[in-house]
């Protein structure tokens, strides 16, 4: 479903992605882990066409998207739902308006059906009675859940989660993990989860890939990653300051 | 070699900026005719640009009219002679409607609305809300730039027309009510020599100023980076660029647009 081939992306002298190769099957939940600043967010922003790669190819459902026009990219992006690290809710719109944003503009659904979908998406993320609130009236965890409701209301085929558990308490973080699992079971979506939280990664992933120095250096099931002998991956998953990773 | 590049850098930056704003203008003009249309944002912007600018336009137009009336009175009194001040009516009306009011309205709206556009869009940019629009398959140009540009295009002439009335009243009040100029000669001359085209010229200019304010405001907002300080810098740039461009474009429009349709 998604195939990334030799992807490169630089910001001036900073060569962030240095030939990423990745293949993600339909319906799979793939966790991409790595240190802060390793280029995980750049990878998903490139994947959804928010950033243009310098080199390489990205295939989504058989379509190579790096060469598409802006207009064609807008259509491809509607296959994706993206949960931003800081939720990125539209702060001039209410919770309800945020969630219904894509539905209202890019579907032919009736107002009643849109209303139903909004309610359903908010219930799925465990929120009730917040429809009329503005984003600044919500806690960090609630914002994140509204962001998720907005991403799933459109019923995308692929959901990208950028650090879903960052900035929220462990209980809420686990509730988000359960939601990621529920999305896969109930909607059958393909998920890409960017995180450095290994507890979360082991729980939600079908497979885990580690991004290090701009490349995917290991891929495996949660069990395979736990038992890996790769010293870089070991150092990362055990959270040790001692080991081959020196830049932190 | 490096030194040469350093010298040419401002030129490259200028050309790059020109390219960016040109591209934004082209995209906006194309998107105006493509659905979905953001009606609620358009109406919101009509209110923001038009209704909420009325107090500031009222004040600037009134005092602009008063001071223009004052200087015209002095000019006639000094150079033509006492009693000739009543001939100032058409000059005040022409000067206000063709030049002073469109410029004043343009500069006021650039300061009040253009800066707000940059600050709002810039904040959306640095908080990833623009990326969120892209991720939902929405074009930020259609959602943010088009409604603001169209609203500014229509509201600036409305504000200018309103400012013309207030400004002319200011000139009338100074000459007739304060300085005791003969009102019937003042009004007769104004109606005789002031043409509808003079008014229309100012409104055409105002529409173009509206486009400049909205496009520059949105452009600077969309390219804002570097946190709150970056948004602040973009906001300042937006007002400065809009104001300078308005003054420059005004001169060329004054030169290009015919002085009178009856000529």
Structural domain tally of chain B: 1
- Helical percentage of chain A: 25-40%
Main beta sheet strand tally, sense and closure of chain B = none
Give the tally of β-strands of chain B.
Answer: 0
Quaternary:
heterodimer
State the secondary-structure class of chain A: alpha/beta
Largest interface: A-B, 27 and 15 residues
How would you concisely characterize the structure shown here?
With 248 residues, chain A is α/β, with parallel strands linked by helices. In chain A, 38% of the residues lie in helices and 25% in strands.
Structural descriptors:
heterodimer, A: 248 residues, alpha/beta, Rossmann fold, 2 domains, 6-stranded mixed beta sheet, 4-stranded antiparallel beta sheet, 25% strand, globular, B: 263 residues, mainly alpha, elongated
How would you summarize the topology of this molecule?
The complex is a heterodimer of chains A (248) and B (263).
Chain A: E1 2-11, E2 14-24, E3 29-33, H1 40-47, E4 55-60, E5 63-64, H2 70-77, E6 80-83, H3 95-106, H4 111-124, H5 140-153, E7 158-162, H6 170-187, E8 190-195, H7 198-204, E9 207-212, E10 215-220, H8 222-226, H9 231-238
Parallel strand pairs in A: 3-8, 3-9, 6-7, 7-8
Antiparallel strand pairs in A: 1-2, 1-4, 4-5, 9-10
Chain B: H1 2-32, H2 39-49, H3 54-80, H4 88-126, H5 129-135, H6 140-178, H7 183-193, H8 196-222, H9 227-256
Helix pairs in contact in B: 1-6, 2-6, 3-4, 3-6, 4-6, 4-7, 4-8, 4-9, 6-8, 8-9
